[in-house]
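Exercise 7. Given the encoded structure of a 312-residue chain, write a plausible sequence.
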């Protein structure tokens, strides 16, 4: 078993054609703070997070996931992972080096099995942040990222083998088989999940709120603003977290959540949940039904960035 050196999820970077509209949504309606900008680039932080940014937006002709970033504890861990990946034949985009992004640090990038760009980094300067106050309906941190995969079994195996992600739970359907795998890098139930889909793409990015009241206030705030809600509000069984899914201006699904389960990793055993049981999707029974329409919106457009490293 590979030693787990990944400590946490840092940020998700998205490229979009209409940069201004996307930036207005995330920095205004969604509740993130624009911390750094450059020509056609914006780095957005969560007020409650020490991460320099949790979303990066980049102007591009193509809609794509630019990269997903994970942290390690030390530069030595970065070097160890880079060496192990290279030895296993994984394509590195570059050798570990000083990062040229806000907060600096030390890291490298590589392509996963389906061609997504992944960044591993350490020693990024912590951002001055604050405690989110009662009633504030803005994200505290980036909770997790869910990926659509045309080869989900292969993708799960890749992250288990190379980055020591652990399986927390699996969702299955009696006719379609296993459909979603929840994977963790620390005691949070999942930092990433892999969903069976028609093509590689972003399924959704999820943002943690302070608590139930702030989560519901945020859900209501987006509804009043006319943002299209896909699914929710409700509470999943896997992870025991709340959910409200919306579409950003480019059709990416984004989620407000809270109370994601923290596991005792020494005693945890993964469950296999049948999501035809309504309580598996939503324990509360308050969300709209998970139907074909909802599922298709989460498929997203095919990612145009596979095996193409972002320019920044």
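Solution.
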């Amino acid at each position: 078993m590979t030693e787990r050196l990944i400590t946490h999820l840092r940020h998700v970077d998205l490229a979009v054609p209409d940069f201004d509209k996307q930036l207005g949504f995330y920095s205004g309606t969604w509740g993130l703070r624009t911390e750094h900008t450059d020509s056609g680039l914006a780095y957005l932080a969560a007020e409650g997070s020490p991460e320099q940014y949790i979303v990066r937006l980049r102007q591009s002709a193509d809609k794509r996931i630019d990269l997903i970033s994970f942290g390690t504890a030390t530069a030595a861990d970065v070097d160890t992972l880079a060496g192990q990946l290279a030895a296993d034949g994984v394509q590195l985009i570059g050798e570990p080096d000083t990062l040229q992004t806000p907060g600096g640090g030390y890291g490298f990038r590589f392509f996963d099995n389906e061609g997504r760009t992944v960044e591993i980094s350490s020693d990024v300067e912590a951002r001055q942040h604050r405690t989110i106050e009662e009633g504030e309906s803005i994200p505290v941190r980036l909770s997790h990222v869910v990926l659509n995969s045309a080869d989900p079994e292969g993708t799960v195996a890749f992250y288990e083998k190379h980055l020591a992600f652990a399986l927390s739970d699996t969702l299955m359907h009696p006719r379609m088989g296993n459909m979603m795998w929840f994977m963790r890098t620390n005691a949070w139930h999942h930092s990433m999940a892999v969903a069976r889909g028609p093509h590689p793409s972003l399924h959704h990015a999820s943002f943690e709120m302070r608590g139930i009241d702030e989560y519901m206030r945020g859900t209501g705030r987006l509804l009043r603003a006319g943002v299209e809600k896909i699914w929710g509000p409700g509470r999943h069984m896997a992870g025991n977290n709340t959910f409200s899914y919306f579409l950003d201006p480019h059709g990416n699904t984004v989620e407000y959540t809270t109370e994601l389960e923290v596991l005792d990793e020494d005693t945890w055993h993964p469950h296999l949940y049948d999501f035809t049981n309504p309580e598996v999707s939503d324990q509360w029974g308050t969300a709209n039904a998970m139907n074909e329409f909802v599922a298709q919106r989460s498929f997203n457009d095919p990612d145009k960035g596979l095996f193409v490293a972002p320019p920044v």
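Remark. The longest strand covers residues 6-16. Students should compare their own answers with the one above.
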